[in-house]
Amino acid sequence: MDANIINLFKISKHIVFLTGAGVSTPSGIPDYRSKNGLYHRRKKQKRSAEWYLSHDCLMHHPKTFHKFMVKYMYHPQAKPNVIHNVQAKLTRMGKATIITQNVDNLYHLAHADPQRLIEFHGNIYDCECMKCHRKVDWRQYVKSPVHQADGGLIRPNLVLYGESINQKKFKRSMNVMLNADLIVIVSTAMKVEPFADLIKYHQPNVPIIAINKQPLHFSYNVGLIMIREDAVKFFSQLALLN
């Protein structure tokens, strides 16, 4: 690992990790947009994956929504990998905050500090009855989308297509970005808005590292230290420094 990169991680006190689906693919969870991703695999179907993950599908076709969620989104056998573990350790040390697009609960399993973890798109293992608003165990949801207590529809806590990001969560993410002294983009193409817009909220001269096999394309000028290598390799090396 480059000595300058090592030094940045050592001296920085407010690291922000912006992470995407590629963080969890080494744990056996498919991503969305790659050749083998969920969206690509669904192209031959009558409906797109985006439709199945939409507010419209949830409300008007709840059984179809539930079937898709259980088949494609839940991976309870998945375990955190070195990327999750190193980032989670840095949150426990008080050095980092994670803002993730992932909804798979793996940062919690890696024991990230909950106060330093922002699940931007929610967490599918956090379920709620839409009728009584009580929390429901995710294992009950996997069995049935109907709440046995009152017949209400259960939904997992994730932002669906056709829904908006919680504004408190967005403002919190924005403030974290403004206070960062090092920003690290990990395994995401930064294509999904408004998550991609978070990069706008950084102080001038704050270094931005991107660890991604593919180049990133922003609609505005962003000075990046681009590291086009496998994130598992990068964080395995970083783990040896701590």
Secondary structure blueprint with pairings:
Layout: H1 3-11, E1 15-19, H2 38-41, H3 49-52, H4 55-60, H5 62-73, H6 82-92, E2 96-100, H7 106-109, E3 117-119, E4 122-129, E5 135-136, H8 138-143, E6 154-158, H9 167-178, E7 182-186, E8 208-211, E9 225-227, H10 231-239
Parallel strand pairs: 1-2, 1-7, 2-3, 7-8, 8-9
Antiparallel strand pairs: 4-5, 4-6
What can you tell me about this protein's structure?
Residues 1-242 form the Deacetylase sirtuin-type domain. The mean pLDDT is 93. The protein has a domain at 1-29 and 79-121 and 164-242: TPP-binding domain (Rossmann fold), CATH 3.40.50.1220. With 242 residues, it is α/β, with parallel strands linked by helices. The strands form 2 sheets. A 6-stranded parallel sheet has the order 3-2-1-7-8-9, with helices on both faces. A 3-stranded antiparallel sheet has the order 5-4-6. The protein is 32% helix and 17% strand. The chain is elongated. It has 10 helices and 9 strands.
Based on the model shown, name its key terms:
single chain, 242 residues, alpha/beta, Rossmann fold, 9 strands
Main sheet, how many strands, which sense, barrel?
A: 6 strands, parallel
**Low-pLDDT stretches:** none
Our measurement of the CA-to-CA distance between the termini, rounded to an integer number of angstroms, reads: 14 Å
The neighbouring-strand order within the major sheet is 3-2-1-7-8-9
Gyration radius (Cα, Å) is 18 Å
* Average pLDDT taken over every residue: 93
Q: What spatial form do the alpha-carbon principal axes imply?
A: elongated
State the order of secondary-structure elements, H for helix, E for strand.
HEHHHHHEHEEEHEHEEEH
* Structural class estimated from helices and strands: alpha/beta
Strand content: 15-25%
InterPro entries: DHS-like_NAD/FAD-binding_dom, NAD-dep_sirtuin_deacylases, Sirtuin, Sirtuin_cat_small_dom_sf, Ssirtuin_cat_dom
GO molecular function: histone deacetylase activity, NAD-dependent; NAD+ binding
Domain Deacetylase sirtuin-type: 1-242
EC number: 2.3.1.286
